[in-house]
Structure formats: structure tokens, C-alpha cells
Amino acid sequence: MKREQYQNHSTVLNQDMSMIAYGEGGIPVIAFQTEGASCNEFESVGMVDALADLIEGGQIQLFCVDGVDTQSWSAYDIDPEARAQRQEEYFSYVTSELLEEVQKVNGSTRRPLAIGCSLGANQAALAVLRRPDLFQGCIALSGLYRASRFFGSWMSPTLYDNDITTFLPNMPEDHEYVDLYSKRQLVFCVGQGEHEDVVDDLRQIDSQLSRLCASHWCDFWGFDVTHDWYWWKKQIAYFMPQVIDEVTKVTTAEKSAASASAAMPATAKATKKDAPKKAAAKTATKKVELKPEAKPASKAKATTAAKPAAKPASKAKATAATKPAAAKPTAAAAKPAAKHAAKAAAPAAKPAAAKPAAAAAKPAAKHAAKAAAPAAKPAAKPTAASKPTSVKSAKKGGSKKRK
Question: What SS3 state is found at 7?
Fold first, then answer.
């Protein structure tokens, strides 16, 4: 297996960042490490080995990247606003500098998949839910999605953008990203055994994606499945082949549609473009004034000015209630959370800066030993025989309670 390590200076983060690429060509897959780990973690715990056949077969090219968790999520001794801002800078680094480097090494402009375990799953999910125009999907395993695990009751507009369990409930059903979600491969998985106290977080994400009618796959494995590398290796080997098949179908259909459009006679294009205004009006996106389901614990007041964050790849105008992919809480929208290289709109308004609360809470679940180890629903349903015999799985597209 080809293995190359890269180190580049990040302008956004103002520090050197490392990345290890495994394989040549194929679908680019960006792997985020667990809390505080460096880019060699996937290799040291055997996750690269779990994907070796797909890497060596040229189906995927794996990119393991550094994180800055010790400067953001885990930096309990510094100001919470600075910590939240550092996470936002990391997100900006991922969506601009890292993405550009991955595409350069991969030799294509393919949208990458994002994968990760525990806190790495949160980074993977944030990438695709906030920028589905840039990422093809995610496989998020045992994710720590709730910011309060690290910040306690403290909240701010910046942290709001990085708290999936907070911003997703505020996304309006007619937001333009909802359609993109259904064209992506969003896979989320969690066990129900020891240290897997993140099940409720995933059930909330499952519920919200279902509310949006966004295609996804949330899988709840058995009560013997714990929060550690042993199971994550089994899960990544189980999900990745199915996701690859779905990505291939989706991207092939996109290429066919693009070719058909390019081959369309100029007169036909003009006719299609000049459709009756009444018909266009019927399909216009409604402007939605969104109110949060619940106020953040900080009781911060909503800011008053709303600025459409950006133009997504489709160049559709953002609605009055939309903004950067991380939705924001109140009817009065606030300023965009991140300065994306390629800006995009997203769902709701968010609160103004919140008052600091007591010392931030540390994560409830500890990571498994370091030495040991999303939402578009894959079209193909897994067979019982293809899954580890000790594992129980939910049906695609939603949760299923275990007896």
C-alpha cells in the first residue's frame, strides 16, 4: 500500500498541519481522529488495516488528518469563546485548505467522504451537514455531537454552529441543503454497550433528519457493542463498501445528467429556461421565519441583523431565514459563523454572544484506549449475513429499539 505523509502550514490556523495519504486514486476519504490524537492514529489502532482491501483495490484513497482538539474542545483552562473560535477556525481549515490539498493529491475534484469515531465523528458530521455542497457524505461512529459535554451550559453563536444537536432542530424543511442531504450518503452508527452514552444524541439527529425528510441511515447496534476501536473497525469495514456502491451510483447519475444537458440543443435549453413564470412561482422556496425550539442555556438574546451567508453551488438565493450550514437559533438571524472559502447558506438564526457559565463539563464518555481504536441512506440494504454475528442493526433510514 502506498503511504505518503504531507505537512503544510495552515494560514487559517497559523500552524503546521500533517496529513497521511494511503493508496492512489479512488474516492477520497478524510479520516478525523479521536479527541487529541494526531494523524497517525488510524494506522496505529488498525483502522487503516480494516480498510486495506478497499485502499489497495483503488476504490478509496484514505487521508488521515491532524486535529486541534486540545486547543478547542479539550482546552478547559482557557476562555470558552476562544475555544469555540478555534473549533470554527478548524472547520474553516477543513473546508478550504485541507479540501484543496486532498483533491490535489487525489488528482480529482471529487467530493470526499468524511469519517471518524467519537469526537472525530462529530468533525465528520459537521463537515457534511454544514457543507453538503463540498462533501459527498459521512460515516460517523459513536459521535460526541453535543457541545455541552465540553462547554457545560455555556453557548455562543460560534459554538452554536458546531453543535449539531442544537442547530439541526432549527433547520427549516424547505432549506436548500435538505435536498442535498438526500443526495449524500449520511451514515451514523452507535452501539448500546459500555461508554456508549451518546445513543440519545443520535436518536435526536435521526429524528430531525426524518423531520426534514432527508435520506439517511442511523444504525443502533447491540448492547454488547462498546465505545472502542474493536467495534469501530468492524463498523467501518461493514459500512464502507455499501457507501462506496451508493456513491458510485449517485456520481454516475450526476455525470449522465451533465452529459445529457451538454448535448441538449440550444433551442431546447432556451425553451426549458423560458418556462412560464407561474410555474416557477409555484416551486419558489418559501421564506421561513424560524423560532428555536428551546433557548440556549446561556439565555443569550438573538442578534437583530440577518445577512445571507452565501451562494451555494447551485447559486440559489438563500431565504431570509437561512444562513451558513450550521443553523442558528432565533427568528432574527445573526452574522454567518464562518468565513468559508466557498460560502453557503444554511438554516436558522442563532443567538448573540452568551454569558459564560460555570466550568465546562468534561465529556461523559471516555475514549477507549488509544492503542485499541452520517444523512443519505445507502440504497443497498445490508444482509444479515454481511454483519458481524454479535451485532444488531436497525433498518436503514431510522432507528429501531432493541428488545
Answer: strand
